[in-house]
């Protein structure tokens, strides 16, 4: 148990040993100071008893060293791994004491008929990881995709579709067609006043829930969600709820009334409704929640959505994952919720991340998520095409896809979350270094070793055959939920039967731990590549 703990007094070091700082004990008044530090250290060390866990105790300079039994370490870790398998390091009794509750994680949230940009990709990857992590800690996680499915752009899209739309194209390639119509109508609207009018008219019909307009909008939305679901599946991502701004259109008006009742709503000279957020009450900072024509805004819908989610799911915490440019938006959102008396807003959190430049495919700028995944797969397949294993594969595209996606995910987690970075396919798909490809490669090699020789789980193994520094350090990493590989230094092939058996047991454990960690990151481990 002490292997997991470290504090100011007890230091866990690189080896499975720890030391006790006598100096710190004295300084903190835990031991009475009487005389020479060294003499006191030695006296203390001589009084401590060794046992089957701590094999050796000796005094250093002001510290007492404890050496943990290697045999026991090997035995315990590998036994535990064998028992817990996919739960090892994931669902541990260590977490049992933690409070578990309901967590809403809102992520991805693209906008219908618009580009799925790098920010949406990052939100998808990071949000999925947060959701997986919360889930493995035992929380009840609700994954929400909050689509941009309302607003003036749907006026334009609706008007545009009546002019340039085609039902056949819409069914065949919905995302592309909606995007094309949207681009075209925007361009036309620039020098054609009539289009602008038609758009405003269409949006007005939408806001008034007019049947025909709503029907078309519904079709856009449904078709888009279906399409997205397919692509998210490739990424290994799912959502419990596809909500969106449209869901909270009506509720947004109620929010405005509540703000009014609480005396939080001010009307400006221009006729807009605002909430004063300054501490001095001098409007030096404020948020607009109502347009002069009485329609709601992005933040108004977010207010309504948050209140609605609290009522529906009674969450303990809610996490929003978007790029950092929306930092102020969420700050204001939480501030207004608090002002409205919703103290649970304290447990709402925005997780911001940095911007990505230059995400391109061979066809040019990325427009759809599918393009990025296709590009990752195509590039990976090309990189793999030379290897013998690939030639033996039945579905190399499938492996290329999984590995390509891992590469995308790993590179995204590489730098600090808030930092911007430049998207670079060559760097992302590198086979060496801390990359997704290398991670998958390490896992696949262990898998093939185990396929060939078995995982050493049948029968007993001799822990004393794993006492070399290399094996001990791997075990240590397993304890810390990290992983390393050492098939070269610790050969299985050509080793005596018992040694091979023990090492396979070790590698089986490494393989499981790697896979467990990868899954939380949102990576699907491959067994061959
Ligand atoms: N659809 C928005 C965008 O693409 C992101 C939504 C973020 N979530 C929210 N609750 N506002 O920028």
UniProtKB/TrEMBL annotation:
List the coiled-coil residues. Answer: none
Q: Which NCBIfam families match?
A: argS (TIGR00456)
Task: Give the similarity note.
Answer: Belongs to the class-I aminoacyl-tRNA synthetase family.
GO cellular component terms attached to this protein's record = mitochondrion
Q: Which UniProt keywords apply?
A: Aminoacyl-tRNA synthetase, ATP-binding, Ligase, Nucleotide-binding, Protein biosynthesis
Keyword Nuclease assigned to the entry: answer is no
| Entry-linked SUPFAM superfamilies | Anticodon-binding domain of a subclass of class I aminoacyl-tRNA synthetases, Nucleotidylyl transferase
Role according to the record: Catalyzes the attachment of arginine to tRNA(Arg) in a two-step reaction: arginine is first activated by ATP to form Arg-AMP and then transferred to the acceptor end of tRNA(Arg).
Q: Name one GO molecular function term.
A: arginine-tRNA ligase activity
Q: What is its EC number?
A: 6.1.1.19
The organism named in the record is Oncorhynchus kisutch
Instruction: Name all DALR anticodon binding domain ranges.
Output: 439-529
Record's superkingdom?
A: Eukaryota
Q: Does the keyword Protease apply?
A: no
Matching Gene3D superfamilies: HUPs, Isoleucyl-tRNA Synthetase, Domain 1
**Any one GO biological process:** mitochondrial translation
Reaction(s) this enzyme catalyzes, per UniProt: tRNA(Arg) + L-arginine + ATP = L-arginyl-tRNA(Arg) + AMP + diphosphate
Q: What is this protein called?
A: Probable arginine--tRNA ligase, mitochondrial
Which PROSITE patterns does the protein's record reference? AA_TRNA_LIGASE_I
């Amino acid at each position: 148990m002490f292997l997991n703990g470290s504090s100011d007094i007890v230091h866990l070091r690189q080896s499975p040993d720890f030391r006790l700082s006598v100096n710190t004990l004295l300084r903190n008044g835990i031991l009475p100071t009487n005389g020479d530090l060294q003499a006191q250290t030695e006296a203390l060390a001589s009084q401590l008893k060794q046992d089957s866990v701590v094999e050796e105790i000796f005094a250093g300079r002001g510290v007492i060293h404890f050496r943990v039994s290697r045999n026991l370490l090997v035995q315990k870790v590998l036994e535990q791994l064998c028992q817990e398998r996919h739960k090892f390091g994931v669902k541990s009794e260590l977490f049992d004491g933690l409070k578990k509750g309901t967590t809403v994680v809102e992520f991805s949230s693209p906008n219908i008929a618009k580009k799925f940009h790098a920010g949406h990709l990052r939100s998808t990857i990071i949000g999925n990881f947060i959701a997986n992590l919360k889930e493995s800690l035992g929380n009840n996680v609700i994954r929400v995709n909050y689509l941009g499915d309302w607003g003036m752009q749907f006026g334009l899209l609706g008007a545009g579709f009546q002019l340039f739309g085609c039902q056949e194209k819409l069914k065949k390639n919905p995302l592309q067609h909606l995007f094309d119509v949207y681009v075209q109508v925007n361009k036309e609207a620039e020098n054609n006043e009539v289009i602008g009018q038609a758009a405003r008219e269409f949006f007005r019909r939408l806001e008034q829930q007019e049947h025909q307009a709503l029907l078309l909008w519904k079709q856009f939305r449904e078709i888009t969600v279906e399409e997205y679901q397919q692509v998210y599946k490739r990424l290994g991502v799912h959502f419990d709820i596809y909500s969106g701004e449209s869901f909270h259109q009506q509720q947004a008006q109620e929010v405005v009334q509540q703000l009014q009742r609480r005396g939080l709503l001010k009307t400006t000279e221009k006729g807009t409704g605002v909430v004063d957020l300054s501490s001095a009450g001098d409007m030096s900072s404020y948020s607009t929640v109502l347009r002069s024509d009485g329609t709601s805004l992005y933040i108004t819908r977010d207010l309504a959505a948050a209140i609605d989610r609290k009522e529906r799911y009674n969450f303990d915490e809610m996490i929003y994952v978007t790029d950092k440019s929306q930092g102020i938006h969420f700050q204001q959102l939480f501030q207004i919720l608090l002002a409205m008396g919703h103290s649970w807003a304290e447990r709402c959190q925005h997780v911001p991340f940095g911007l990505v430049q230059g995400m391109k495919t061979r066809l040019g700028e990325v427009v759809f998520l599918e393009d990025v995944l296709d590009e990752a797969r195509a590039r990976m397949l090309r990189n793999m095409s030379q290897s013998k294993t690939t030639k033996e594969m039945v579905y190399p595209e499938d492996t290329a896809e999984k590995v390509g996606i891992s590469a995308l995910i790993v590179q995204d987690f590489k730098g600090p979350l808030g930092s911007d970075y430049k998207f670079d396919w060559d760097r992302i798909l590198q086979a060496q270094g801390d990359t997704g490809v290398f991670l998958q490669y390490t896992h696949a090699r262990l898998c093939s070793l185990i396929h060939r020789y078995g995982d050493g789980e049948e029968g007993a193994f001799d822990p004393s055959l794993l006492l070399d520094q290399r094996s001990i350090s791997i075990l240590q990493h397993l304890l810390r939920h990290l992983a390393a590989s050492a098939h070269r230094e610790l050969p299985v092939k050509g080793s005596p039967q018992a040694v091979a058996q023990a090492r396979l047991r070790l590698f089986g454990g490494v393989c499981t731990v790697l896979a467990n960690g990868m899954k939380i990151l949102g990576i699907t481990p491959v067994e061959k590549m």
